[in-house]
From TrEMBL:
Residue ranges of coiled coil: none
UniProt keyword annotations, A-Z: Glycosyltransferase, Transferase
Organism, as annotated: Nocardioides flavescens
Short name of one Pfam family: Glyco_transf_4
InterPro entries: Glyco_trans_1, Glyco_trans_4-like_N
Single annotated GO MF: glycosyltransferase activity
Record's keyword annotation contains Flavoprotein: no
Every Glycosyl transferase family domain range: 187-313
Protein name: Glycosyltransferase
Amino acid sequence: MRIAVIASSRFPVAEPFAGGLEAWTHMLVTELHARGHELTLFAAPGSDPDLPVRTLDVPAWEPSEVALADVNSPSRTWMHEHHAYLSLMLELSQRSDIDVVHNSSLHHLPVAMAHLLDAPMVTTLHTPPLPWLESALALRRDAGVFVAVSRRTAEEWQHVVPARYVHNGVDVRRFTPGFGGGPAVWTGRLTAEKAPHEAIRAARLAGVELVLAGPVADEAYVEREVRPLLGPDVRYAGHLRRAELVSLLGSASVAVTTPAWEEPYGLVAAEAMACGTPVAAYARGALPELVPPTAGRLAAPGDVEGLAAAIVEARGCDRRAVREHALQHCSLSRMVDEYEALYTSLTDRRVA
């Protein structure tokens, strides 16, 4: 098939990934291309030049000083993003050489303008409902098919739009099992909504060393809540590329996940389990769908003492069973199989 993938314009689809959305998009595009599909990726400048696709950058545009002087003017960043997606959707509306458009962005314009396209659109819902997307869907119920990344996220969108769910996946050929036995790890964006400071407190209560890894997404939060807690038993390893991340996860005894929001999926948990590393996490968002007792332990959201107990218990999980769970339920190939079937159903319906 000829597939156009619309990525988020905020961060490039390149290592080290800014977050799970960029990592997910990279895996999806790479796997679809490997299966013989012809792809066009619309992504932020700086995206991986080795991706087997054509990355198109929308020409830069600057609002005039007169326009910016308006007291109600949005920020330059907001306007740049708006212009990028407006330009893209107007271009796609003139094309007839695309079979399916897969919208993986968080912007409202692809949804609001989907009815202008010749090809059907699949939109993956990576987050809980956003006000701009709710507004677009209130006016355009014919914006294609919507797929949430978990059952929990699909339920959160029910009042806006009916959505099926396809659990995310990770490349289990690249996230390979390790021997474990090392410190606990926490991976992800260092920001308040991910609450790494609670992982530190729980690990200390459990008497387990902890390594943090990921991009600093909120410098003020990290300076206030995280850096003061670092010490001989807790260190920050930085923002890692995938090979470094796989090595860290494979050597860990347990992966700790501490969302302070309704985590839509929890890619970091799937990555850890693919490496055979059990997960100790808050039972929040989609994590109860992801982590069975054979692969980890869950604690009540915000219960640091309960999480400490979960860390201790999870370390006793059989790493082979953890890896097997990931192979059966968290693989990239399973995820792409489901999306391919959806694409086929849409193109078959279109021909009929």
